[in-house]
Amino acid sequence: MLRFCIIFCGIFFFEYKLYAQNKPFDSAQFAHFDCGIIQSKQKLDHRFFASVPAIRLRIDNDKQMYASFQLGKRKNKIYLYLKLLGEDICINNDKNVDVYFKTGEVIVLKNEFPINCESLFARQLSKKELKKFKENEMTQLQIYTYKKNYEIYLNEVHRQDILHYINCLSAYKIRKGEIHK
Description:
The protein is of the alpha+beta class. 25% of the residues lie in helices and 33% in strands. It has 3 helices and 10 strands; from the N terminus they run H-E-E-E-E-E-E-E-E-H-E-E-H. The protein has helices spanning 2-22, 127-135, 156-171; strands at residues 38-44, 47-51, 55-58, 66-74, 77-84, 97-101, 106-109, 120-125, 138-144, 149-153. The strands form 2 sheets. Strands 1, 2, 3, 4, 5 and 8 form a 6-stranded antiparallel β-sheet that branches. Strand 3 (55-58) and strand 4 (66-74) form a beta hairpin.
């Protein structure tokens, strides 16, 4: 009887662990309403910066792949940071990220981060691009790499979070030398 209980408990915990590992961890569960801006004393290129929490996005044309979408602010400029959460992914230097809108328009964003195989994309967003993000409904991101092109379809929660974080960072003033959360 004791052996049966041990085997049953072992199988139960093993199944639970497998279920927990297969749960998606993207940010599509609920929209965020607080800004969650973090500014530390750490500097980037000798300037203070602030960032909002990253939004986890599931890659739609790859079963086990996710991306991290994060916005940050340095000086008076808002930056977009994308990272594919995989190993040895080289971002294409000719064409990096396409942002698709419900209207059919497409914005092509070029990487300002040095060409790398760490799947990092960084871009200072212009006022025109920010206005486009605010006024139009984003539907898809397409990230170009040397091996594969990754597609991310944005849902309503993702769009709300992106718009909310853009508005938060637009209003936020970078403070020098202080830690603010």
